[in-house]
Design goal:
The chain is of the alpha+beta class. It is built from five helices and six strands. The chain is elongated, with a radius of gyration of 19 Å.
């Protein structure tokens, strides 16, 4: 493993632990050259379906892209990084369980919106404003009304 501090490829493992739901191994390492400690994570590579975008383009599923979208929505909100990671883990598990070679991007957005609504309504509204293409205050009002009534926000006709 390459040290992020000095770039040397020699390190030793100090500690290994299973993280989260057992889908990842967290290793604490120490660089043999500079002595800096750093953490690496190993996760099983699963065959994720391709994502079908609104304009019918297909692209590979990108965990970093989903994480970035959720993190943007959660900026300055009381949502931990662990909670965000768990949301993405649950999304990926669901996508794998579907067993389809392709999934619409809309499905990914709906799952993320549902996950965020359960954790933080403001973060969910931020995500929904982009995902559902809010045009004004009325869209926010409808969103928060549906959340207050315990209904899932209506994704409308966007696809």
């Amino acid at each position: 493993m390459i040290c992020p501090s000095c770039g040397t490829g020699e390190s030793r493992v100090i500690d290994s632990r299973m993280a989260r739901d057992g889908s990842e191994i967290r290793r604490r390492r120490e660089c043999l050259e500079c002595g800096r400690r750093f953490t690496t994570r190993e996760r099983m590579e699963e065959s994720m379906p391709r994502v079908v975008k609104r304009d019918e383009r297909r692209e590979e599923y990108d965990r970093a892209k989903v994480l970035a979208g959720i993190q943007r929505a959660c900026t300055k909100r009381p949502v931990s990084q662990d909670a965000v990671e768990l949301m993405v883990d649950r999304l990926e598990k669901r996508l794998v369980e579907l067993g389809d070679g392709e999934v619409p991007s809309r499905l990914i957005g709906e799952v993320v919106m549902r996950e965020l609504t359960a954790v933080d309504h403001v973060a969910a509204a931020r995500f929904a404003s982009v995902f559902l293409g809010f045009q004004g205050p009325e869209d926010y009002r409808k969103f928060f009304a549906s959340v207050a009534e315990g209904r899932e926000p209506d994704p409308g006709s966007r696809d």
